[in-house]
Write a structure and sequence with these properties.
- This protein has about 600 residues and is an all-beta fold.
- It folds into 5 domains: about 5-200, Sandwich (Jelly Rolls); about 215-390, no CATH class; about 395-475, Immunoglobulin-like (Sandwich); about 480-555, Immunoglobulins (Immunoglobulin-like, Sandwich); about 560-610, no CATH class.
- The protein is about 0% helix and about 45% strand.
- Strands 16, 17, 20, 21, 22, 23, 25, 26 and 29 form a 9-stranded antiparallel sheet that branches.
- The radius of gyration is 38 Å and the shape is flat.
Length: about 600
């Protein structure tokens, strides 16, 4: 088959969620738009999305993000399609096996011409193959194919899940959730809109590695990949776009499921409503699934951080967050429970604004853990950060903010979660034996200007739940700079100064060198040849110290003239030596006899003439 232009792409991800539609991604004019709907007794209907015509009943495949799939037997679309000299085909497939399977084929006058498999696209006329090397095994994917034939006499018909024929592959056993055919090559913008619709519906991230925007049917950006570039792993969402008939109410991403209202067995059985044009996206930073120890030893935090991004009126929608701990590898341990920690200010997360809610066991057969009635982005910033932690049912978080470098003091913020007011707090300074006691109804308390030293803290609530812990306020960490006022080098030398040799401070300070011409050099060793005044500026957490010094560059020779001449009074036995120093610099002079023995030693430092 000649003069065919082929383009094919794959998208993949973990299982996720779906919705119903009228025009995929708002792109009208499809010849066929088929989707699977579940029937009793493990059967499904593969039908037109307009629901005007049932195509055929097939066995049900594995669900894909709370939507059904159909294990399609041979389905000939020849009676329904016009000639396909130009076409775009998009399919959503949930593989059931690693074996190569026949997905669809084109044929002309009974002759097989083009075959799409789970592993490659095959031109049977030219016996040419393009392997799909980037598709992960056993993960759902979205395939996108188009061609444009220059031969106007060649006509194509299409068969879905064809018999394998001459190629040694399997008949299709995988589930297919959606199949879309156009009799034209759609534009890149239309392609993006359809793929975003399918990605949200079936929980298949557009990309795991490259920054990719998500758009709605109006081509408006609903997930800004550049703005959220730190969080580009497993981007999934729930949301609604009536122009696409998208109403995805629950989605799974690895260990987390977020649903609008209580989760149901399928998306269509979820009775909640999301306003049109509203979305909740979430994604993580790729952090490992390992524990980080918090300041308080009883609390451990998962190193992974998620972001939740809200669009439209999603702030008004109560959501449930479900956790399947078997997918996290780590477990809480005895006496500990899972907590959902939400920080409403992504650019400046702090304990004072944090919300921490315990997970509870559900009655579902999957034994999920759930946090109910979570509303996102209450501060209107557009996004929240959230993390998972484990701790006791009565959890106390502490955040210590050290004061400036000139004071041995710190501020302490205490957050109490899982308790019931009033609370009784007692803080003891071990060195001075001083005790601070407080009764309060507030779950957040700030203690200012605590002196350096070791502390014990005890807290109890109305129900006699108790917490005991300890913390330390460090002594001030002032910035000390010890370096000479003057450095002298020869004209052909270079001065190299490592700030670590002169600066005493914990952690990593910001280093600034100010050169004679005012130029600034940041956070590196100084390399200088030019004479003049210099300054070293060191800053750490608002504390600043500086040191000025001078660099002098000497000419290559310090000795302008050395005169040796016989002294007539001593009959040629002794000599006078005249030395003239042009610069202030130490000079050592040693006089030897003809046998190499030392006669005298002299050490000169001043800028003058000497007679030895």
């Amino acid at each position: 088959m000649k003069s065919i232009f082929i383009w094919f792409a794959l998208l993949w991800g973990t299982l996720s969620l779906l919705a119903q539609q009228v025009a995929p991604g708002g792109v009208e004019g499809s010849l066929y738009w088929l989707h699977s709907s579940k029937l009793p007794d493990r059967q499904s209907i593969f039908q037109s999305s307009s629901k005007s015509q049932i195509i055929e009943i097939f066995p049900a495949g594995r669900d894909l993000n709370y939507h059904s799939s159909s294990v399609v037997s041979t389905l000939n679309l020849s009676n329904h399609l016009s000639t396909l000299r130009q076409t775009t085909i998009i399919a959503v497939v949930h593989p059931a096996t690693e074996q190569e399977e026949a997905i669809w084929e084109f044929h002309s006058d009974g002759q097989k011409m083009m075959l799409m498999t789970s592993h490659r696209i095959a031109d049977l006329g030219q016996y040419e193959f393009i392997n799909l090397i980037n598709r992960p095994k056993n993960k759902p994917y979205i395939s996108h194919y188009f061609h444009h034939l220059e031969d106007q006499t060649l006509k194509f018909d299409c068969t879905l899940a064809p018999e394998p024929g001459v190629i040694p592959i399997e008949k299709m056993h995988s589930g297919m959730s959606e199949f879309i055919v156009f009799d034209r090559v759609i534009s890149q913008a239309e392609k993006a809109a359809i793929e975003c619709y399918l990605s949200i519906k079936y929980g298949i991230p557009l990309s795991q590695h490259n920054a990719t925007d998500y758009i709605d049917a109006n081509h408006q950006v609903i997930w800004d990949a550049t703005k959220n570039r730190r969080f580009n792993r497993e981007v999934v969402a729930i949301g609604r776009d009536d122009q696409s008939s998208l109403h995805q109410k629950q989605t799974m991403s690895e260990a987390l499921i977020i649903s609008s209202g209580p989760m149901a067995k399928s998306n269509v059985e979820n009775k909640s409503e999301i306003p049109d044009g509203s979305y909740l996206f979430w994604s993580h930073d790729g952090g490992e699934k390992v524990w980080n120890q918090k300041n308080e030893e009883s609390i451990k935090e998962l190193s992974r951080t998620w972001i939740a991004v809200v669009k439209g009126s999603m702030q008004t929608v109560p959501t449930n967050v479900y956790l399947r701990e078997e997918n996290l590898v780590v477990v809480p341990g005895p006496g500990k429970i899972w907590w959902l920690d939400i920080y409403p200010h992504p650019d400046n997360p702090s304990l004072s604004s944090k919300t921490s809610v315990p997970f509870q066991w559900t009655d579902s057969e999957d034994q999920d853990l759930v946090v109910e009635d979570i509303r996102w982005d209450l501060d209107g910033s557009g996004s929240d950060l959230f993390k998972l932690s484990v701790g006791p049912p009565f959890k106390v978080d502490m955040e210590i903010t050290e004061s400036s470098c000139l004071e041995d003091q710190a501020d302490l913020t205490v957050g109490i979660f899982g308790g019931y007011p009033p609370y009784q707090m007692q803080i003891s300074h071990l060195e001075s034996k001083k005790i601070m006691a407080l009764d309060t109804d507030s779950a957040y308390q700030k203690f200012d200007r605590l002196a350096a030293g070791h502390y014990l803290i005890n807290i109890s609530d109305k129900n006699n739940q108790t917490f005991s812990g300890q913390f330390k306020v460090n002594h001030s960490d002032g910035i000390e700079i010890e370096m000479p006022d003057l450095f002298v080098i020869d004209k052909n030398e270079e001065l190299v100064l490592d700030p670590n040799n002169f600066v005493s401070v914990s952690k990593d300070p910001q280093i600034t060198w100010i050169l004679p011409d005012g130029e600034k050099v940041l956070n590196q060793a100084l390399q200088a040849k030019k004479a003049g005044p210099y300054k070293l500026v060191v800053e750490k957490e608002g504390c600043i110290n500086s040191k000025s010094f001078t660099l002098e560059v000497q000419p290559i020779a310090n000795l302008q003239e050395v005169l040796l001449y016989p002294n007539p009074i001593t009959s040629g036995v002794h000599f006078n030596v005249f030395v003239r120093l042009q610069q202030v610099a130490p000079v050592g002079i040693e006089i030897l006899d003809v046998k190499g023995g030392s006669i005298s030693d002299h050490y000169l430092t001043g800028k003058q003439e000497y007679r030895l």
